[in-house]
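Task: encode each sequence below as structure tokens.

Item 1
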Amino acid sequence: MYDELYASLEVKDHRNIHIYFSRPLKNDLKESDISVEFKNDIKFSYSMEKFNSANYRVSLRFKQSEVKEREEFYVGFKNASSICSSDETCLSYSSKKLKGFSPKYSQEAEKDSEELRALEAFTYGSMIALVSVGLLSAYGSAMWFFFSTIQILAFLPISNSRLTPKITEFLKGLRYFDYLFNLFDLIFDAEKNPNPHYHAEKYGFESNYFLLIAGETLTTLLLFIALLPFVWMFSKCKYKSIKKIFKKRLSDYKYGLLIRFWVQAYLEFAVGGVNQVLETPETTFGAIFNFAVACFFNVLLVVSPVFVLKFIKKHLEAIKEAQEDSEIAKKWGSLFYEFKPDSSIYALGFYAFFFVRRALYALNLYLMSDYPLLQCIANILLMLSFSVYMLVAKPFKDSILQFSNTVTEFGLFLIFSTVTYYVLWEDSDYERLMED
């Protein structure tokens, strides 16, 4: 048992002072039990709130435009003998008056900090609204577009956009492939090849290896392929009802599933591929193998939009006249069945522009990280150009789907526009928000 109760003071920032007691108080401390005064003539007011029985916060509100750094102040206890702990020990004489020094205060800087906090709230709210509306409005084939949209947002923290921790954690949680199993974690050790890209490493990509970044996606593909023999086996079943179901699934495996998977996985592979090939690999098997796999996928990524446009151009008339059970619809329907059959090549070639935007976005995340403002502007232009494309080309034949996807794209453009403000903000204001 201690003979005396002790108090200490901690200055959190220019607004907040914390008073800590060595043991919980028997009775709550009231605002009238304390006094706060500055050595020099400073105009201010204060209020106090309880965190717990041993921790109280005193909030200062200055009534002048500036306060110099290290202004001396005192927190005193008016009736120290009545401030006791639960074991009846009272406040020590040495703790009756606590001394502290306030940080520099500027009314203009405070206003900027409040605006930055408001911007954070707006950005966070906009992201939640976009994801919520997208999820609620997504139905059938619209679901893939929703997941493709949040995939772009999920990788935003890799950019040098100085997002707040709250927003960063929210966006990282949107990367749905990250929740899947990565087979290659069992094969390669992330610690042997650390990621040289600062923002990507901070995001959570500890290694530079392509297969450790995009491994969850590739593992999912391998799982689908591993199930193919079982689908084929059941498609040969003697029971007609089972045979019919799995024969249709087998057809989906051959064409639609792989195309749809590539659409969904494109950005994952693009980010992993760019991350890997920007650095010369070490002369180890793991590094060279991952570099080679990344190069292979990068070639596929580059070829994809070119292939889509050439395919649409070559088969334009056949696509316009295609029926659901036609050969071209069965094999390649995933590339065009959602779009107006009488549209131009630019509308039917939606996936070419879809791929190009993602490829440029992945490149921009890494190549422009030393130029944050230019990086933000490039991202804004990417989102705006695709939004305008959606508005002008109107590719989707379902009017509700067309409307919801266009609104989603403009919502994405708005969010990327607000991110620019984080880059433009003064370092001192940004650091103050981080501390808060």
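Item 2
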Amino acid sequence: MTTTTTTTPVTTTTMLGEAPLTAGEYAALCAVRDGADIFNRSLAARLRAIERAHPTFLDICPPMGTYGVNDVYPYFGAICTAEGKRALTQYEDAAVSGGDASGATPDEVTADGDTGGDAGGDA
């Protein structure tokens, strides 16, 4: 008689009790880990989607910088909360151990330019 055992990979699902972060969500949260004004439209849309899916992971607020009349004005400011930083750490740990749901390592996520990762700049 043979027995088979299966193991489930470690993901943020098992640690947080929520859906795991996708590679794009990970990259977007990394862009606002310490706070940023958001000028990039695709990053703004991704952060709004994260706000709906994981409302405790980031705070969206008015822009943090001071901008002149002729300056490009950001969509909003955003900063990763303590729970969001914990989710990032767990994603990174899961990716290092090979348990990430997307199969991408943190280096691959930030290198592929999926969200433009640029919190400030190109409008």
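Check on item 2: The two ends are 64 Å apart (CA to CA). The longest helix spans residues 82-96.
End of task.
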